[in-house]
Structure formats: C-alpha cells, structure tokens
Amino acid sequence: MMEVESSKLSQLLGANADVRSVSDYLSLFQTFFDTSLDNIAVYGLAGQLVYANAALRNALNLKKDTGADYVDIKSQEAFDQYYDALNRTISSGEPRAVLINFEHASLSRVIYDLVHFSAIKNQQNQVVGVIAVGRDLDFNKQQKNQETVQREQYLRALMDTFPFIVWMKDKSGRFMATNRKFVEVVGAKHYEDLEGKTDFDFFPTEMAQGYACDDEEILKTGVPKSFNEQIKKETGEIYWAETYKSPVQLDGQVIGTVGFARDISEKQHLVSEVTKQRNAYQSLVQNLPTTIIRYDLDGKRIFVNSRCFETYNIEVPYELNKTPLEWWSPYIVNVTGAEFMTQLMEVMQFNVQKTLEIHSMHEDKVAVHQLRIVPEFDEVHQVCGALTIATDITEVAEYRRKIESMAFHDQLTGLPNRTLFSQQLSVAIDQAKTNNSQFALIILDLDQFKSINDTMGHAIGDKLLIEVARRITNSLDQHCTCARLGGDEFIILVESVPSREHVEYVSNVLLNQIMQVYVIDGSEYFISASIGIAYFPDDSEDMDDLLKYADSAMYHAKKGGRNRYHTYSPAITESIQHRLNVETELRRAIENDEIYLEYQPIVDMTSNQVKGLESLCRWHSRKLGIVSPMVFIQIAEETGMIVELGQWIMREAFKAARLLNAQLKHPVSVSVNLSARQFFEVDLIHQVRHLLKEQQCNPAWIKFEITESLLLESNQSVLNALNAFNDLGIKVSLDDFGTGQSALAYLSKFPIHQVKIDYSFVKEITSNPNDALLVKAIIALTATLNKELIAEGVETSAQATLLQSYGCRYAQGYLYSKPISLQAVQQYLELREA
Ligand SMILES: Nc1nc2c(ncn2[C@@H]2O[C@H](COP(=O)(O)OP(=O)(O)OP(=O)(O)O)[C@@H](O)[C@H]2O)c(=O)[nH]1
User: What is the mean pLDDT of the chain?
Assistant: First the structure.
C-alpha cells in the first residue's frame, strides 16, 4: 500500500519532478507522517483519499486492503462539516480549520478533532490536492485528564492523610468536597454520599445551625475564623475540635467556604484538667485562712491572694509588681517596708526561712499575723523567688497577752503583781544609779483586814481590796508605780522624789484616802492602813534590802498603833534583829529548860482564901536573860511556837495541880491560858485528855482561860472543844473581858463559867467614875447570867473594897500576890492549911 500511495502522492507532487529527489522526499515525508501523532490525510481534487498516515489508519481502523477512500464519519453533521471544509479548500486553495465531532462506529468514544485543511499546490500554484491534518483533541484531553486524575489522587491522598477533617461547601452550605476523615465523622460510606448535602443532614439541628451561622459570617465578612467548637460524631460521641474556616475563591469569586477541624478532645481534656486543677488550687489558695504573697527575685509582688485584703482590714489593694520598698501597707505598724525587704532578700540570698510577727492596726484594732518567708525554687532547684504565708494569730496573741498579763498582774485589782513590780523596781534602781537620783518605796498594808474578811466574808473583802487599789492609783501621779504584793499589801514606787516631805505627803494622802468610808452592797465599811517607807540610796541600793526595810518600817507603823506611816531607820533593823534573836532562842527554850511557870493566886476577897491560881509562863534565857512574856508569847503566837509551848504549859500546869491538890483539903484550881492556834492546829481535846491522864490530874482542878477573839471565830470546832471541856469537868474562863467586843451573847452561847474583868478597868476604878460604872455594869450582868467574876490587876485595898461593894467576890493582883513559883505556892498553901 505504501508504494501505491506513494505513487499517488508522487502524482500529486508533479510529473516533472526529479525522481531521485522526489523519492527521497517521499521517504522523508512518509517517515514523518507515519510517526506523527496527528491524523494526516491527503485528498485529490475530486476529494478522494489519496493517503492516510499510520495514526489515521490506526484511528479509523483502516485495513491496507479495504481501499477506503473517505474518512468514515458516522454523524452526518460531522461528515458534512468535514467535506464542506475539504471542498472549500480544494476550490479556494485557502487553508481551513474545523472542529469536528467524530463518532466512529468502531470506536466506543467520541473523537473531537481539530482538522486543518491545507491546499497542496504545484509549482504553478495550482491546487492539486488537500492535506488534512487532524489532531485528536480527545487524545490530548485524555492525556490531560490522566494528569488531572493523578493530581486529584495526590490531593485526595494528601487530604485523607491530613490529621484534620476537611470540607468545602458552596455558598448555600452544600458539601462540594470532603476528606475521608470527614466522611467517617458523619458516618457516610463514600465521598459522593456527601455531595449536595448540608450539615443539617448529619448533625443535630442546633449544631448544624451553629455551623451555618459561622459559614454565613465568614461569607459575609470574607475573614477567616478559627475557634474551638463541639462536633457530634455519627456515633453520638461529642468531641472538641479546633476549627478553621475560610471563604474559598475561584477566579476572584467567593464560591463557598472551606474548613479544617482537628480533634482536640485530648488536648481539651488536658486543658480542662489543668484548668480544673488550677481552679482547685486557686480556690484553695484564695480561700485559705492564710495570706499568701509571692515575690520575684527583685522582691516584687507577683501574686497576692484575696485573703490579703480581708486580713489587716485592708481596703487598699496590695500593689502587684511593686516591692515592699515601693509599696507597703499603711496599716502595718511594727515593721517598715524597708525592714521587710531586707528580710525578704536575705531569705532569697541565703536560702533560709524566716518567721516574723506582723502587727497591723485598723480602727483601733490590732491584728497579729505570724508571717513565714520561704524561698521558692525553679526546676533546677535555683531560688526563683519567695513566698510569704501569714497566719492570723490575733486570738493566740491575745491569749498570750492575757497569760503574760496574768503572770505580771494581780487578777483581782488589775495592778502589777510582785513579779512585774520587781522588774520595774530593778529598772528604777538602774536609772537612779545612772541619774544619781533617789526614790522611795512605800509598802502599805491594811489594818486588821483579816477581821473584815472574817466578819463580812471574802467577797466583801475582795470588793474592798479593789476599791483600795482604785483609791491608791487615783492618789498617785505619773511618777508613782503601784503594785499589789499579795493579800492586803500594796507597794508604791515613788520616783523623782524632791524631798522626804513629798513622800510623807503622799503617804498621808494615801492613809487619808483609805480611811474614807467604803459603801459596798449598800453597807458602809471603814478601814485604815499602815505604811512603811524606805529610800534609795539612803537606806540601801539593793532591791531586796529596800523591800525588807520598807516592810520593817510598815511593821513598826503597825506596832506603833496602825493607821500611820513609819520611815525606815537602822534602829528598826536592830529591833527586828533582836526579835529574830528572841525567836531563835525561843525555839530552843523548852529543850534548854529555860521556860518555867509562875502562879498568881486568885483570892476570895470575902475570906482572903486562895481559890485558884493562874499559871503564867516565864522565860529565863541563858543568852538574853529574862524575856518579857509580852514579847515572847507574841512571837510564839506569830510563829506558831505557841502550840508546842501551850502543850508544855498544860503539862506543867496539870502536874502542878496534881502536886498542889494532893496535899490540900480545899482544892485549888489551876488556870491555863489557851491560844486560838491550839484550838485550830492540834486536836486539843485529845491532847487535853491525854495530858490529864498522863499527869493523873483531876479535870476539876483545871480552868482554861480563853480570850474573846477566839469566840469571835464562831467556829464549830471551838464550840465542840468548849463543850468537850465542859463534859470533862474543866471550867472555862473568859479573859480580858471588856477589851474586845464584850458581846454578852457569847456568854450564853458558849459554856463559860467565869469572866475576868481586864486589869485596865480595875486600875482606874477608884479614880475614873466611867470605869467604875463599866465595872459595876459588868459585875451586875455576869451575876445575872450566873457567871463567876474575877477582877484582874487589883493592887489596892480601895479597889478591893469597891469591887466587893459592887458584888465582885474574886480578885487577882499584887494586893494579894505577885506570880510566884510553884514552891512558893506550896509553902503559901501549906501555911494556909495549917
Ligand atoms: N478578801 C480577800 N482577802 C485576802 C486576799 N488575800 C489575802 N487576804 C486576807 O487578808 C488578810 C491579811 O491579813 P494580815 O495582813 O495578815 O493581817 P491583818 O488582819 O490585816 O492585820 P494587820 O496586818 O496586822 O493589821 C488575811 O486574812 C488573808 O486571808 C484576797 O485576795 N481577798
């Protein structure tokens, strides 16, 4: 066929062509034509197909021997188009290009060819044929399609491996494209299932509505948007997604929206966990009853919990990013910002912890906080700041203050107590030494306060003490400090003493104030005080000595009659020293056999007969000589030695009573003085019984003398003892009658047989009509009560006569006999008996 066609072609190319060169050309053209991808056909002037290249033959499936002379065009329209163009080129010689839609019967596809018809002209420029070059556009497209498909596949692979869900929607919200993840999320099978559908087809209405709103907004604004939102999976699972949505443009036109969403549930979970933890931590930190402030390395506050504002009653907010130097709470009164800054920096510099006490004052209220400053560390354990944690210890501090106050103050009067006063006194001594000044120490002790307590009760006593404290404090100026030493004893430090007269003036003011009437619970009371004064440095520079000296002076004031002041002098120390010596010697007096008894006869004035004897204790000290009973009995009373002494006296007196009465026809009684202490400090009844037995003494020979003060106690044990004596047959005599309250009620209430009129009344009986009247009245009264009466201290016969005339039968005194020894008594009685 090649030869046939090439001969036809050579015919077309001209008869006079050089054969050799023509054949060369033909070979060249044939090679070119047959390797061309374009379909090439050559037509003669009659429109007959002269030549078809390999591509065309292949396209039209032309067999070599079919002899087809036209292009097999199925569609009439295309056929007409083709041949019209061919014929026009033949007739005009003008080239022409036509796009023709071939639908070849043997091919399953439609072929679009762009066919170029060009005239073949000879040397004379005459058209001899037409060459038609058709380019299979469909082939090109196919090739292009292949590339596009591949590119699409790449894109899809890219989209599907993207860890996001991806979608593209048109302006009305219809899905145009999605990735596999999106398909999965909505539970579809294929991409195609989503085409033309909207969010409303896959998501709950509310959610879809939200998505639509977002899309609308993006389309409207043209601005991309990214946010976190919730997406519901087809499985019902709702998860958090981080979404990015943007408008999509094509050829400068917004055609819809595109979106990417990433599942951030895990991240969100983590974030919400962290948030939860942070909230919990914050709630803890904010609600802790402690104030927390965090500082950076420069000392700037970087965190302050809300407690800081409540505490310290602070309205001014703590200023963040400022150091304590730059801002410091105006309410903190005990630490300055600079001081605190120093502490803070030390904590961070030396990696130590510190504890401070912060006092803040607001509206007269002081809040106390215990503040700990601790360093804070970073991940590599370097100090990166500091934390202060303050706990409110106001209540604790208040308790501490109260405890301290209790330790240093008297609870009843609120005055400083001995401990605090000692400190104040010590300071005063130091200052006075430095300033070369003097001060006075005043000790004030209430007189007979015990009797107030005893008669009016402790509660009244307390109220009185409170009032006394108030009066003392009010009487003093700012240079004086007052304290209660205990009991009814107060002490006053008078500093800046211009003169002793000033101190004496102060003492008189105090005595005067204390003497004023006290109205307590509607009743009136009177009391006085005794004051002792000692001076620094004149009397001593030593605190203990000063206290001792003021006390000694006060004791002297008491001894001097009370309700007065006494200034210390060395003579007082001497007398005290003497008393101390007496006391020391007295302790050994019994065992040293220095104590003995004397007996003073009690006489029946009518017959001059000795009716009884009063035993009187005497002491002849080897060291001190004769010591007056007035002195040593009082010391024995004060020191409690009277109990031992009293027992010794009883034993001696009982022995004497036995000895005397053993030989007498008319028995005499021996009186023994009993001290109140014996009633209270020993089992007196038992002791008496024991001694009576021991000394084989008849109780009828014994009389006990007691004083009114014992009866004042109104004590049941006293009554029991007196009743017991009565039961034993021991008579009781009331001594010193007239000197105390002389309440006749005692005489009927207690088993008392005898009353002794005190010698002080008897002494003046002949010269003082009042005393005479008094004695007369007492005698009459005791007679009425059927009590025996003895007049003490009868020294003259005039007194004796008068007493007798009043009806007094018994007397005791120098008129009859001084106290004498047992031996002398024995002789005296023997004489009488004889
Ligand atoms: N009501 C009351 N009495 C107290 C208190 N403390 C001590 N007393 C009593 O105060 C009295 C002190 O008595 P003293 O100072 O020893 O003796 P006084 O009766 O005052 O006699 P003189 O001091 O010698 O004048 C005692 O009876 C104590 O029991 C107290 O707090 N309240």
Answer: 86
